[in-house]
Specification:
Layout: E1 7-10, H1 12-29, E2 36-42, H2 46-54, E3 60-69, E4 80-84, E5 94-102, H3 106-116, E6 122-131, E7 143-148, E8 153-154, E9 170-172
Parallel strand pairs: 2-3, 2-5, 5-6, 6-7
Antiparallel strand pairs: 1-9, 3-4, 8-9
Helix pairs in contact: 1-2
């Protein structure tokens, strides 16, 4: 563990409260539409997906997908590579992509194109935090947790060099 404790940007309570609001909206929007397929984007979304899914009262299944970007920090270059695919056939299914953070937007843009080509009944996105100043490509976000400034955030699944993922809040580090 790093000796420096990241400064709080979004508290554990604020995250909990927002997830309850988002999940209530998802429960309402997908009521009566069959089993919703949640696709968590590894690794960063694993904690968000765990908490969000446990607030859902509608039937849902859990899938994971993993991507990596060629850029040094995130997908600055815009080149995204698929590391691990979902295991289920999503054709004709309602799909919700669950992502930790939208930075440039290249990652989510890539995932939307990839999954849309498989003809799901619907494809929606749920993103915990968005760096408004950094967005390079217009990506449709259906459910958003928080907008944040252009700072490097850690905790609640997010890392800096694989550190701080299990902090219960979202904090800021100065690398
Ligand atoms: P994109 O730039 O929107 O494609 O985001 C690429 C990926 O970079 C995200 O999915 C995160 O995994 C990572 N990332 C971007 N900004 C941060 C940050 O502030 N903290 C931790 N990970 C980040
Ligand atoms: Mg990510």
């Amino acid at each position: 563990m790093s000796p420096v404790k990241p400064e709080t940007l979004i508290s554990e309570d604020a995250i909990k409260k927002r997830i309850k609001e988002i999940s209530a909206q998802i429960n309402q929007d997908f009521a009566g539409k069959g089993t919703l397929v949640l696709v968590g984007v590894l690794k960063g979304a694993f904690i968000f997906l765990a908490d969000l899914s446990r607030e859902l009262s509608i039937p849902h299944s859990i899938e994971f997908i993993a991507v990596s970007s060629y850029g040094k920090h995130g997908a600055d270059s815009g080149a995204v590579r698929l590391l691990m695919d979902v295991r289920e056939d999503i054709e004709g299914r309602h799909v919700l992509v669950v992502e930790d953070i939208l930075d440039t937007g290249y990652t989510l843009d890539y995932l939307i194109s990839l999954l849309r080509a498989r003809n799901p009944a619907s494809l929606s996105t749920c993103v915990l935090v968005r760096k408004t100043e950094r967005v390079q490509v217009e990506v449709k976000i259906d459910y958003l947790g928080f907008d944040i400034p252009d700072v490097w955030v850690v905790g609640y699944g997010l890392d800096y060099a694989e550190q701080h993922r299990t902090l219960p809040y979202i904090g800021v580090v100065n690398p």
